[in-house]
Design goal:
Number of helices: 9
Structural class: alpha+beta
Oligomer: single chain
Strand content: 15-25%
Order of helices and strands: HEEEEEEEHHHHHHHHEEE
Largest sheet: 5 strands, antiparallel
Distance between the termini: 21 Å
Strand order of the largest sheet: 6-5-4-1-7
């Protein structure tokens, strides 16, 4: 993936990580499929949406989101992050969440068909995807409370991506034949989640999890996943996918 973006940046002109893209037109102004230039574009290769962050670091604040298949203009690249612009939204997206050029065009068409070419959205916008519409209606308040609580217990101090990662591990286990097939059974399975046995989970459930954990829980039930098909995680680094202070494997 890194090689693809470096090649793409050679075509559009490599810029420094701190360069501000002042001349990039909004995608909404360029929706003619016959003349649209995909050479400097990237699309979100995700289930729901990719976060756009202020800087090239997972700890920086979110400034927007890019729905699945939606398109941004590539401006630069730094340390595994791609600097992007879409309308008034400018920031960085993790390189592994994007595809570029012809792959971006194919992904957009597979998700949106002949629809208008769409770009980034503000954080408060509703992301309308099949994953969301098909899954959120079946989630009970009790399950939402439980998911938000275990996310707070395991990743309350982590980034949004880390919070979603914990929830995604739980959803992956529910779908796996190696684990129980309900949310409560997975979370309370003996020897798996320490907060469930220590009483910490019960404490968070009694007072209610934070809004950030509820937001992550809702997105997880809607299909958000930052860790792929991984089934385990632990604190600290090691082999696997490290997000913040946790490694998923």
């Amino acid at each position: 993936m890194r090689r693809k973006f470096m090649k793409l940046l050679t075509c559009v002109g490599t810029v420094g990580a701190m360069t501000v893209a002042m001349a990039v037109p909004a995608l909404a102004d360029t929706t003619d499929k016959e003349t649209f230039d995909w050479s400097d574009k990237a699309a979100a290769n995700v289930t729901t949406y990719a976060n756009i962050r202020k800087g090239s670091d997972i700890s920086t604040e979110r400034v927007g989101k890019l729905p699945a298949g939606a398109v941004v203009t590539v401006v630069g690249e730094e340390n595994g992050w791609v600097q992007v612009s879409s309308g008034e939204i400018e920031g960085y997206i993790r390189e592994d969440l994007l595809v570029s050029g012809e792959e971006a065009q194919q992904l957009f068409e597979s998700v949106h068909g002949d629809g208008e070419i769409t770009g980034a959205q503000p954080l408060d916008a509703v992301v309308e995807t099949a994953a969301i519409s098909n899954q959120t209606t079946s989630v009970s308040q009790a399950d939402l409370d439980l998911m938000a609580a275990i996310i707070e217990c395991e990743a309350g101090g982590e980034s949004y991506e880390g919070k979603v990662g914990v929830g995604a591990v739980i959803m992956n286990r529910i779908r796996s034949s190696k684990f129980p097939n309900t949310l409560s059974e997975v979370i309370y399975q003996k020897g798996q989640f320490t907060p469930a046995a220590s009483g910490k989970l019960a404490s968070v459930l009694s007072r209610g999890a934070s809004q950030a954990c509820y937001d992550a829980a809702r997105d997880v039930f809607a299909g958000a996943n930052t860790i792929g098909d991984r089934l385990f995680f632990h604190a600290g680094g090691g082999r696997g996918l490290t997000i913040g202070n946790q490694t998923f494997y």
